[in-house]
Amino acid sequence: MSDSAIHNHPGPASTTGPPGPSAGGISIRHLHFAYPDGTEALRGIDLEIASREKVAIVGPNGAGKSTLLLHLNGILEAGHGEVQIDGTAVTPASARFVRSRVGLVFQDPDDQLFSPTIGEDVAFGPLNMGLARDEVHHRVEAALAAVGMSGMERRVPHHLSLGQRKRVSLATVLAMDPSILVFDEPTAGLDPRGRREVMGVLRERTETVLVSSHDLAMVSEVLPRTIILDDGRIVADGPTEALMADAALLETHGLEAPCR
Q1: What is the pLDDT of residue 158?
Q2: Domains in the chain: boundaries
Q3: Tens digit of pLDDT for each residue in 203-242?
Q4: Which residues contact 57 (CB under 8 A, 6 or more apart)?
Q5: Is the distance from CB of 212 to CB of 66 less than 8 angstroms?
Q6: Which of 8, 36, 155, 212 is the least buried, fewest Cβ under 10 Å from its Cβ?
Q7: Sign of dihedral through CA atoms 114, 120, 126, 128?
Q8: Is the CB of residue 185 less than 8 Å from the CB of residue 214?
């Protein structure tokens, strides 16, 4: 199967006006980004992800995957082009709204867990949203239950296993009630049990889910659509099953088909 046979991802939306709001919708138009040293990380990304889709972004190291993720909640600002979340353009002025809609779960949970207890970590975001204490308490309980960590509020995060810390990191995001969940290498470094636990959580989520990963076996099992990114460009976009069956395509872009 050639690149062109599967590189049929939706083009940019009509330029006559912004799309109507869609909870969990992502629209990226002509996105370019270069770092201060001149490195071009993204070279004209056009991408549409519908509400509640589960999508993988894969590619070799340096392809631009993490750079793309960081544009989705305004951590990085487009050099050219536009990113829309739920119909709202991502700009410094909209950053607060966008970050309430897009929950970004970093590869290293220690980048997100900094409080003395799990409960305090999960409550941090809702408290900063100005929510009432009762509502914060409800959100903490619901978020921990969603990741299988109920009753762990008083535990110290850094005494947990890596898999448990990754699930708590997700709970800190879920407590914000986002419409989009973005994961950077969610299974990296996990033992088989931790990997299965994280995969189970990914399967159960009903929000829009976007996952950057080198774990193509996990991608094959959990995410129906896959986008291959290489050298800052989308080179293929289609059903995961079809892309994973194309060994030549994967090899061309520094990837290896998962074992069957």
Answers
A1: 86
A2: 9-252
A3: 999 999 999 999 999 999 999 999 999 999 999 999 999 9
A4: 65, 68, 69, 210, 211, 212, 213, 226, 227, 229
A5: yes
A6: 36
A7: negative
A8: yes
